[in-house]
Amino acid sequence: MEYIVYLSGEIHTDWREQIREGVAEANLPITFYSPVTHHESSDEVGVEILGEEDKPFWKDHKSSKINAIRTNSMLQQADIVVVRFGDKYKQWNAAFDAGQAVAMGKQLIVMHAPELTHPLKEVDAQAMAVTETPQQVVEILKYISQP
Amino acid sequence: MEYIVYLSGEIHTDWREQIREGVAEANLPITFYSPVTHHESSDEVGVEILGEEDKPFWKDHKSSKINAIRTNSMLQQADIVVVRFGDKYKQWNAAFDAGQAVAMGKQLIVMHAPELTHPLKEVDAQAMAVTETPQQVVEILKYISQP
Amino acid sequence: MEYIVYLSGEIHTDWREQIREGVAEANLPITFYSPVTHHESSDEVGVEILGEEDKPFWKDHKSSKINAIRTNSMLQQADIVVVRFGDKYKQWNAAFDAGQAVAMGKQLIVMHAPELTHPLKEVDAQAMAVTETPQQVVEILKYISQP
Amino acid sequence: MEYIVYLSGEIHTDWREQIREGVAEANLPITFYSPVTHHESSDEVGVEILGEEDKPFWKDHKSSKINAIRTNSMLQQADIVVVRFGDKYKQWNAAFDAGQAVAMGKQLIVMHAPELTHPLKEVDAQAMAVTETPQQVVEILKYISQP
Amino acid sequence: MEYIVYLSGEIHTDWREQIREGVAEANLPITFYSPVTHHESSDEVGVEILGEEDKPFWKDHKSSKINAIRTNSMLQQADIVVVRFGDKYKQWNAAFDAGQAVAMGKQLIVMHAPELTHPLKEVDAQAMAVTETPQQVVEILKYISQP
Amino acid sequence: MEYIVYLSGEIHTDWREQIREGVAEANLPITFYSPVTHHESSDEVGVEILGEEDKPFWKDHKSSKINAIRTNSMLQQADIVVVRFGDKYKQWNAAFDAGQAVAMGKQLIVMHAPELTHPLKEVDAQAMAVTETPQQVVEILKYISQP
Amino acid sequence: MEYIVYLSGEIHTDWREQIREGVAEANLPITFYSPVTHHESSDEVGVEILGEEDKPFWKDHKSSKINAIRTNSMLQQADIVVVRFGDKYKQWNAAFDAGQAVAMGKQLIVMHAPELTHPLKEVDAQAMAVTETPQQVVEILKYISQP
Amino acid sequence: MEYIVYLSGEIHTDWREQIREGVAEANLPITFYSPVTHHESSDEVGVEILGEEDKPFWKDHKSSKINAIRTNSMLQQADIVVVRFGDKYKQWNAAFDAGQAVAMGKQLIVMHAPELTHPLKEVDAQAMAVTETPQQVVEILKYISQP
């Protein structure tokens, strides 16, 4: 089966590239989707395309909705959703994506350091795998992609 | 219409009581659901009922899943889901609930301080109202409950 | 069967009252839902509860979303959706409600003057009845409520 | 991701061509669907294929239903639905399409002049972007199509 | 469990009354729905409420749609759909109801004489019980209503 | 859009071939599905593959279910379902397919002679087009396949 | 919240009564559903109501389908499904119920002795709680029924 | 139609190969999916990728969930699910897959020896074909793949 995998969450390390490279080396027929991971353009896209806003709330609102056109479409097409939580920032969008994925019947894989186990327990509880490293995700994808 | 409203998120202030009281005073035909908000029993329920665990991960896992029996059932029955984010803790379960609610087609109301606008922009973007106080939620419930 | 009927659309004549009265006289076990039909409070509710806006767009946006909490919940609960189009105003919200109703599998009844047949042809095409008067809707409700 | 975008609404200006051209220049992997935009053949198709009608209502009815075979199929396949409202005509079919799109979980982009903000507030409230020009839609499609 | 049972199909014998009576005698908590079974009013309702038609097709069309408001609503609410085929008439509406019921995930019980086995084989194939008499349906309802 | 069209119903005339040929001549990107239309093998397939039965009911049952593997899969994949009713036989399977198609949200086209209007009124009422000839279906498919 | 709990699986011990009694003592607002647990009448119901069969396969087939009218209806209404596996018999129907429950989005609680952990690992993996005794189920129901 | 067929259940004989070979010889356009059928790697995958566990329950849990990423994805994509029950082991995962398949609207084919008819009666009751040999499955696939 040719899986579609959506890579959601933390955007400050190269975990997506590590997964893509590991999968490319193994030559697996997997398609990856991801959000726009360029922080600045993701924050500015709303006002850049649709016009300036005085209030930060509406600026954020316009950007988030344009990003949601992409992320909602990708979530709906994906078979598997991988969500990584880093050690910084609130990352509520990552948990929000995880909630949507589960309610849509997608297979959820979570990635985070062991220190985050307690605050992520509700997300982990509905995941199919809780990993710590991109390599573990690659191993899972290799395993489930066997002929 | 007699709404069912699920009150999700922050458990350290009395915001749920304020909403319930405001609605009771207005005599509105609204049923409220909420998660178990007693932090300790919520954390311990898994090992208390199902037996001890050595690893914190599995202790959390068992508790979270028992709590999910309640929260998933309530989310499915609710018409409206109110999610409050406080100023402390990670609160990823709150964002996870919000994601599930949106994907299930529920009407989402978010409550948080203005300082949290930027990290909550993706959640706010798919909400029907972004409030700051329990009184505002009461006002919305009054407004939509007019005959 | 005890139907739930949502009365959507035009808010400047007393068509809803005529239907309610006709049904009450016939003593039918029908529950009616309707949007908030007080034009001013419907337009102002967003800024009144959630705070002022400089731009008309965001003022409208906040109000429309609060109204959508009510209308979306009612649409989801309804068995039958009656949408009336009057001879004034754009009434795009009425057509929007009709589209949602059809996609949700609800039974759609449309009410409008014959002069509006051509511009409403796509809405009428997916309706179960196209009426001109509240009395016709009452007659339909009587007919389908026979024991 | 290769999006499917349905272009609904106003048929009297060349906004669809502008979007198609802008996307073609940017070489994006997007498939566009649109209704039959030739007004006369769209109005006549029912009686031309299925036989004459004396009453305008049934003439319109037959045509609208044949057109709905196309538009319903396209709405179901689309990821994104763009609906443009012009400054003339009732355009209730456009609002009806928007309502169906939202209820089907599609990502809605609306396009209209600022003068139409108030009557379109309920439609805008459930859209992911409210644009004024085809160029803005092209910019959004470019942004969400980044690798 | 308190079942809702929709009794569809043949309207020229008293099979519905026999089932209702058998169930009433057994004092079972079952709610029965049925279409309007008065043939003439069912055929005339469209033109009587919505106005005359010259062509038989449109006369039938208007009546069938008004009847569908009732039957579609009942099918959606029902747990169990019983469809009886008699020995006369085409009864395509009965088979049509059966098809809708199966696709909606309802439990289908069919009732017909053994002579109709071959032409009804596709309907029977997706039914949970194929009966010949109202008494058998009553027995099934008694059996499944045990505490 | 490249439609998938399921051709259901009457198997004793060459209407399917006429539609396929008309569409092939017009070079339309349409995929056709159809049930197994060889009457004898369709009736015998159950006992031939799965073993003999003494009772006609079970012989029919086994065959119908194997045929349903095909027809259910095709109905689920189709965008449009064309159902033709001939002038002979009960054809309840055709009406059953039509009911399933409508409940699955497929676009239904019915084909039958005018003499069958009254007994087919409930099926016609939920169809998007009621045709009399294969040529009319071809014309509809040409019309909706315009670029 | 007033939960509906379906008690599926093993029928040779009094585990259902223990759960019902524990819940009754705690005065919880829970409604319990269960299959017909009288083994003989469950096996015989098909031929008793619908007529004798020579082949055991068809005898079983008719009974199982009548039982499915009850169990499918109850599964669809339930919020929570408890499935107990005993130490005897194949109990494939229990695992089949569990599979249906999970695919329908119900909250699954499994009950079995520790010796059955390995063969039940796939079922346990998608459960919200894996218990060993009726008392544990009662404790969970008490916990999630707190106000 | 190009079917996707998921081959679930017993992993100790070569029934999957027999079906694949029979279908390859007949040159049918069918795609087959199957679980990981290497017993040891399937049991060990959880601890191998995600780390050791002391308790057998959690070892099994981690493996089963990783396997579920594959099997759930395949079940969702499949048109037809074939489940074989062998004469050894509990095989509750096979019955669990069958339950999920039915609830997802997939066409179920069961394969087992006649001796297992009674314990599998509930599964068989909701299947579209009950076979005993791989050759019978091949014959069914040939039959339904006719042009």
TrEMBL record, chains A, B, C, D, E, F, G, H:
InterPro entries: YtoQ_family_protein (IPR019884)
Pfam families from the UniProt entry: Nuc_deoxyri_tr3
Gene3D superfamilies documented for this protein: 3.40.50.450
Name listed for the protein in its UniProt record: YtoQ family protein
Organism from which the protein derives: Aestuariirhabdus litorea
